[in-house]
Amino acid sequence: MSFVTQHPINKRWPAANPDILQLYSFPTANGVKASIMLEETGLPYEAHKVTLADADVQSPEFLALNPNNKIPAIIDPNGPDGAPITLFESGAILIYLAEKTGQLLGNNATTRMHIIQWLMFQMGGVGPMFGQLGYFNKFAGAQIEDPRPRERYINEAKRLLNVLNQQLAGQDWIVGDYSIADIALAPWLGQLDFYEASDKVGITDFPNITAYVERFMARPAVQKGRITPPRD
């Protein structure tokens, strides 16, 4: 038996080919980071749909892979030094896959650190702040009469968008060439429409960003990764 077939998660999401990388995910802004990266790099992988329902993410099988009960997570049976590796946290998965393949992490140490810098900008800023904006603008928080929480996250989203719009001035991608920083950031920028917040943050005031998202969404690997694994 292989490492994958022996892992508890295989009882709920059995691998058809346990010799290749296994992705456990759902097509959210965080989840598609991993699937887009796998499509961009050409690594063979098998995708398993793990919904956001407690029945999936709180199941003992999934918690055995990610005790933080969030997608995405991976098992790579061909990890560092020939040993299997399990990983959760989308940013960590992006860095791992970039290092494994030698792709999308720059060609020198300085560029590599700048790419990681913008990846952290997404992880620590854009993701959490846009998520809160979505909560207070579209979901349960929208029922709160006090406008201050919603205004706080609208203003913070505008601030973050302005930072990105300036960074994209005169260039197609966040750090020169296309990289994992773009794979992390662009799906979250696309979330503004889903959160019904594009007008409220004045997205048309940031033309570099709107053009950037269009470039990103036009990539074949992005189009495939955004629907992997399928929702249905």
Automatic annotation (TrEMBL):
InterPro entries: Glutathione-S-Trfase_C-like, Glutathione-S-Trfase_C_sf, Glutathione_S-Trfase, Glutathione_S-Trfase_N, GST_C, Thioredoxin-like_sf. Residues 108-232 form the GST C-terminal domain. Residues 18-105 form the GST N-terminal domain. Belongs to the GST superfamily. This is GST-like protein. It comes from Shimia abyssi.
